[in-house]
């Protein structure tokens, strides 16, 4: 990337799919050529979730790889990798995908697999980032868009957005404001990567 065609995006979801919807809405407004990318498939780790319904309503192919349908996590990882490969993605976007992928998936998509995290990494990695930020008493937190590696929220950082912590905030209120920034940042970052290309130099992501 970039080249003469739009980048192919596969989006992975586990729940409501609001980040997916933000991507779809932006592409609908800017059109595929203007945005520089199109969502060619949506994958999930479970059936009957809003994220899949959003994709199907938009006419986008979907697939489901449930962990319980496979002998172990490694077998599930191979199945997820193969199902994703079928759509020949340029970028894979984790949009609230709540499973940790394994070695097979990373070997195939590392450097092209994007995730969001509700904190300013490297602070507060892991599943309780918003709660831990509040407990720590930080005055500024936010969200991070990063490439996924084999650690927990340790991959190269692409972009970050700041969110002020208010005195009256509880975990839910703070997380909702972070999600608002996260959606905008993810859409912006994916579009820039698709249109302009990028390179990863150590821990730094360079976008022309």
TrEMBL record:
N(1)-(5-phospho-beta-D-ribosyl)glycinamide binds at residues 17-19. One of its GO terms (cellular component) is cytosol. Residues 8-190 form the Formyl transferase N-terminal domain. It comes from the Bacteria. The active site is at 117 (proton donor). The keyword Transferase applies. The keyword Protein biosynthesis does not apply. Keywords: Purine biosynthesis, Transferase. It holds the Pfam family Formyl_trans_N. One of its GO terms (molecular function) is phosphoribosylglycinamide formyltransferase activity. One of its GO terms (biological process) is 'de novo' IMP biosynthetic process. It catalyses: N(1)-(5-phospho-beta-D-ribosyl)glycinamide + (6R)-10-formyltetrahydrofolate = N(2)-formyl-N(1)-(5-phospho-beta-D-ribosyl)glycinamide + (6S)-5,6,7,8-tetrahydrofolate + H(+). Its EC number is 2.1.2.2. Pathway: Purine metabolism; IMP biosynthesis via de novo pathway; N(2)-formyl-N(1)-(5-phospho-D-ribosyl)glycinamide from N(1)-(5-phospho-D-ribosyl)glycinamide (10-formyl THF route): step 1/1. InterPro entries: Formyl_transf_N, Formyl_transf_N_sf, GART, GART_AS. The record marks 153 as: Raises pKa of active site His. Catalyzes the transfer of a formyl group from 10-formyltetrahydrofolate to 5-phospho-ribosyl-glycinamide (GAR), producing 5-phospho-ribosyl-N-formylglycinamide (FGAR) and tetrahydrofolate. NCBIfam families: PurN (TIGR00639). Belongs to the GART family. This is Phosphoribosylglycinamide formyltransferase. It comes from Streptomyces oceani.
């Amino acid at each position: 990337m970039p080249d003469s065609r739009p980048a192919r995006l596969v989006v992975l979801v586990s729940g409501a799919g609001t980040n997916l919807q933000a991507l779809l809405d932006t592409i609908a407004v800017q059109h595929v050529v203007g945005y520089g990318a199109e969502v060619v498939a949506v994958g999930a780790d479970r059936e009957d979730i809003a994220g899949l319904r959003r994709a199907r309503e938009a006419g986008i192919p979907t697939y489901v790889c449930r962990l319980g349908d496979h002998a172990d996590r490694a077998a599930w990882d191979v199945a997820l990798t193969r199902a994703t490969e079928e759509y020949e993605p340029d970028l894979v976007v984790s949009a609230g995908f709540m499973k940790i992928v394994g070695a097979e998936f990373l070997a195939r998509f590392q450097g092209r697999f994007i995730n969001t995290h509700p904190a300013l990494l490297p602070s507060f990695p892991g599943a309780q980032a918003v709660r831990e930020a509040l407990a720590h008493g930080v005055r500024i937190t936010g969200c991070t868009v990063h490439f996924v590696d084999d650690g927990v929220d340790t991959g190269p950082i692409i972009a970050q957005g700041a969110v002020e912590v208010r005195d009256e905030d509880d975990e839910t209120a703070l997380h909702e404001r972070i999600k608002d920034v996260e959606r905008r940042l993810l859409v912006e970052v994916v579009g820039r990567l698709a249109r302009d290309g990028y390179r990863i130099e150590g821990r730094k992501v360079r976008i022309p």
